Amino acid sequence: MAVKKNAECEIIIKVETGTTSTGKASYSSRSFGYINPSLSEDDILDIGQKIAGLQKYNLGSVNRQDTAEIAAE
User: Where is the DUF1659 domain (predicted)?
Assistant: First the structure.
């Protein structure tokens, strides 16, 4: 049976940094690691929105990226 080991979570926020030559919004990503992987999606969204409030640019989206090592038990 396989088990999950060394689970990690990262919050990635995308902020609108300007516009392209065609007038569409352009975005940059900001990544914040070492987030507790047991946090709920509501908690992640709340944290991402608070971090975005400290940014100069408007928030585009909040993303969660989970990674873990899978090993035999």
Answer: 3-71
